[in-house]
Structure formats: C-alpha cells, structure tokens
Specification:
Elements: H1 7-13, H2 16-25, H3 35-46, H4 50-66, H5 77-82, H6 86-95, E1 101-103, H7 110-115, E2 122-126, H8 129-138, E3 145-149, E4 161-164, E5 169-170, E6 173-174, H9 185-191, E7 197-201, E8 211-212, E9 225-234, E10 237-245, E11 255-260, E12 266-270, E13 285-287, H10 291-295, H11 299-306, E14 309-310, E15 318-320, E16 329-337, H12 340-349, E17 352-360, H13 366-373, E18 379-388, E19 391-398
Parallel strand pairs: 1-2, 1-4, 2-3, 4-7, 8-9, 9-11, 17-18
Antiparallel strand pairs: 5-6, 7-10, 9-10, 11-12, 13-15, 13-16, 14-15, 16-19, 18-19
Helix pairs in contact: 2-4, 3-4
C-alpha cells in the first residue's frame, strides 16, 4: 500500500508554496542509501508535509518513462501503476479523434491527457475526490476537459463515447474474471445500453468466452460483446486488451493486435487478413511473434503476411527461411529430441556458455534446465524447446542480437 494523500495535501502540492517545496526536494538524491538522511532534511524544512513531498518526487521520477511530459504531475502509487502509458493512450485517442469522449474511470487523467488533444470535448469522472483533484492539477492547461465526481455505473453524460478502465484486482489479487472487475464488465454494459462503450481490460482475460463472432451465436456464459478486442503491446510487452464496440470498428474485424514502440512507430494486424499458410518442415529460422499477436490469436495471420509457417499447428512458434524486418529471429543450427543427458553433452561439446532458453508447449522451467545442463564455455546459444506433434523437441540456435 503506497502513501495515501489527503485532499489538503493535493491542494498544497499544487500551490506556489508546494511547487517551490517540490523543486527543493527534487534536488535531493533520495536513493536507498541516502533516503533516511534526505528525508530527515526534508522534515526539518517542511515538517508534516514531508511524506507528501518525498512521495511525489519519487513518483514523478518513476513516471518519466511511462508518462513523458508529466514531470509536474501529481500521482499516488496505485494510480501511477494503473495509468495507461502515454504511447498506448495516444494510440487509442487516434481511433477516437473528432468525437466527444467521457472517461468514466478517469483517475488522475492519463487517458484524458491524450484525448483532449484530438477530441472536441472530453469529460472525466471518478468517485475518488483526491484523484480528481490530481487530475484537475495535471490537466490545468486543457480547457476542453471537464471533471466531475460520479459513479461509473451511474451515467452522467449523453452523446459521448464512453471509456472505462475497471480495476483488475479482487480481494487483493489480479483477476481475469469479467464479473469481478471493478466495476464489473456486465454491469458496465448494462449501464450504457445503446452507447458506444470502450473498455480496457487485462490482456489475460478470456475474451473467447464473450466475444460474438460475425454469424455466430451468443457465447454460452450469458455475457456478450459485439465488436472487436484489440490486444496492445508496447516495446515487446503486452499491456492491455481493449474492447471496441462494432460502431467504432472495421466491418468483419473481431480481433486486432497492435504492436507499438516507444518512439511512436507501430503496426496492426486483424483477423480480416488472410491466414492460409503451408505445412512444411522447419525452415532456417524460428520466429517468436510479438505477444500481442499470440494473445489476439493471430499467429497464422502474421505468418501468412510474412511468408512463414508454424513448427506445429498448436504452437505459436513460427519458422521460415527469412525473418521479418525488426524482428528477432533464431537461426537453427541443429534439431534433436529432448533428452536432457544428451543435450548436456552436446552443449558441452559445442563449448556452450551464455544460454538463452525459450519454451512453449512443454512443462519445463528454463532456469532449472539451465542449472542442470551447466553451461561453462564461451559460446552463446539459444535453445528453443517445444513440442512437434507428441514429441518434445529442441532446436539449437545462434543467439541473435536484440533488434534496435
């Protein structure tokens, strides 16, 4: 549990005296080694304001990568952890450009900061008055943003696209059950009948259980979503799944993978694209698709687009004789059935040293396997351990550089 700010502390931090105090505290290192000494120095100067000042400076330093340009924002720890990265928020805002939007779980305003630049009118609401006060500070230079204290399940706007980001924890644990989100996804859908509702979810949610496919019947669980699920990754890490209503999507698209980079570049792939791929023996390379592609169920579509095919129809590893631009491919040197004793002997014979181990489709702990095969040499290798049919199989590969 992070530091809990009061409304009075937020007002102070945004005042001229608070701004000056934060600038003074920001000159301190506040490293683990200096923290006690630095905090005592702040306490002597600012007394009961110490906790709020130190925590704000620390949070601002943490926010630099996730929310560039927010160096003067106010945060609390939980809200910063849950805030949408600026690159992802801008990507979503581009799909909403020109529309009035209401973020019904706006928190401290990370989503609003992207929306207000491309939308004519933006409303943000939340039940937490402290976070609303933070949002007011953070968006003070956004004249087209209106903030209100309101329950996400009690509509207070009309004529807007509604965005919701339900909390993804229940009883202190991360949940992937749509009914246990806060507010629950079924309740959100019921609260906005006939409205264009966009919902951000954890990427691990089982959207197969409620996504209605064109021409298909209703899902068996009773919860139905007509539209698209977009799985988004940023710099190789899957960040979220976003549910889009059919009115804001493309005809025939129910799944989308959007692969973004921090420099603003990116690309998308949908299930409206071809997915016909050949069945062949492994090629010269193994390609591990971006996690957004895998999570969105678009591995075959990605393979078809890049002239690749699957090692096994049930496994997400792809293979081919070339590697897509900007993707880390693994050049296959050898292939053999997985037998640990023989593998250890082969690695020692090849003077294996640094060893990267990738697994999929097998119950195997890479760290434990690395400890057992005991690589002690000087040559780096990558092992791709997977299942071809019923056979656990090892591909010995050159370790590639990480693409820039």
């Amino acid at each position: 549990m992070g530091y809990r700010f009061s409304r009075g502390e937020v007002d102070y931090l945004g005042s001229p005296a608070g701004v000056a105090a934060l600038a003074e505290v920001d000159r301190l290192s506040l490293t683990p080694k200096s923290s006690v000494r630095d905090t005592e120095q702040v306490r002597r100067a600012f007394g009961e304001r110490t906790g709020a000042l130190v925590e704000t400076v620390r949070l601002r330093r943490r926010a630099v990568v996730k929310l560039p340009g927010a160096q003067h924002w106010l945060f609390d720890d939980d809200a910063l952890q849950q805030a949408t990265p600026a690159t992802v928020a801008r990507h979503r805002a581009r799909r909403l450009a020109g529309r009035p939007v209401h973020d019904v779980t706006c928190s401290l305003g990370a989503e609003l900061a992207a929306l207000h630049r491309v939308c004519p009118a933006v409303l943000g609401s939340d039940l937490d008055e402290v976070r609303l006060a933070m949002a007011a500070h953070n968006l003070a230079d956004a004249p087209n943003v209106l903030l209100a204290r309101a329950d996400a399940l009690a509509p207070c706007s009309s004529g807007t696209v509604v965005i919701a980001d339900p909390a993804r924890r229940a009883d202190g644990r991360r949940t992937y059950d749509p009914a246990k989100l806060q507010p629950p996804l079924p309740d959100l859908i019921d609260a906005y009948p006939g409205r264009e509702l966009v919902v951000k979810c954890a990427p691990g949610i089982d959207f197969d259980s409620f996504l209605v496919r064109p021409g298909g019947g209703a899902p068996p669980g009773g919860l139905s979503w007509h539209g698209e699920v977009e799985v988004v990754s940023l710099d190789g890490s899957v960040r979220e799944a976003c549910l889009w209503p059919s009115g804001l999507g493309e005809p025939g698209v129910t799944r989308r993978a959007s692969v973004l980079a921090g420099d603003g570049s990116g690309w998308s792939l949908t299930d409206a694209e071809p997915d016909d791929i050949p069945e062949r023996a492994p090629g010269d390379w193994i390609v591990d698709p971006d996690g957004a592609v895998v999570r969105a169920g678009l591995v075959r579509h990605y393979a078809a687009k890049h002239g690749l095919w699957q090692l096994d129809p049930r496994i997400a590893y792809l293979t081919g004789n070339t590697v897509p631009d900007g993707v880390r491919g693994f050049h296959i040197l050898d292939r053999f059935d997985f037998r640990e004793k023989a593998l250890r002997a082969e690695l020692h014979r090849r003077d294996c040293g640094p060893l990267e181990i990738l697994t999929r489709g097998v119950d195997l702990d890479p760290d434990a396997l690395r400890a057992r095969v005991k690589p002690r040499g000087g040559t780096p290798f990558t092992l791709v351990v997977t299942r071809i049919g019923a056979t656990p199989t090892v591909f010995l590969c050159e370790t590639p550089p990480v693409p820039r």
